[in-house]
Amino acid sequence: MKLGIFSDTHANLEALTAVLVAFERAGVDQLVCLGDTVGYGADPEPCCDLIRENARYTVLGNHDAAIAGRMDYGNYYAAARQALDLHATMVSEETLRWLGELPYEVRDGHVAFCHGSPIDPRRFEYIFALVQAERCLREWPRLQHVTFIGHSHACKVFALSSDEVIEVASDSFELHSELKYIISVGSVGQPRDYDNRAACATYDTVARRFQFLRVEYDVETAAEKIFELGLARKFGERLFTGV
User: Fold this and answer.
1) At the topology level of CATH, where does 2-241 sit?
2) Model's pTM, two decimal places?
């Protein structure tokens, strides 16, 4: 089975729509969303609708938890709080219930899905550097063969033996049977790795082959909608540069 895996849409409808088309062209069988459908962007409700209708699994992200009343986001910086406060008024009661019921983690066979670190998915801790991935070594026996995460908005692959972590610098590879993997699939709606294309990935569960995908979309329209909504301009401006 070929999975289309994506994360951190952040209410960017133009990017999400383009990614769904790319997944269809890639022959994906099922979709998995790793959270943070809301926050920052202009279209929280349409993005939630598309993901709710099309994804086999969706896990909870920290921005989703915030507007669903499942976490305190008072320590977020002002512009992020403003976007979350506004999004809470823009989505339907049905969407709030859906977000309120999303799991922190899903496991299916040899694969696990969560938003942040698998050590404790409820804490939404980042993994975007070796030192963070190395903290997972103590949990190596209970890790699945591969864990897919989001949250950092960066495309990163870490391969773990029982006593060492290495970063894999490849866009496409087959999983080694003796290693375990933590793969951050990047962000659909707010890439922050100096590439403004939407980031996502595919994974063949039989061949155990992984591939990053980058997808061009209508950045100008997505940014203009953010400006018109009155959110912080940097949320739209950063779409052009991918940082």
Assistant:
1) Purple Acid Phosphatase; chain A, domain 2 (3.60.21)
2) 0.97
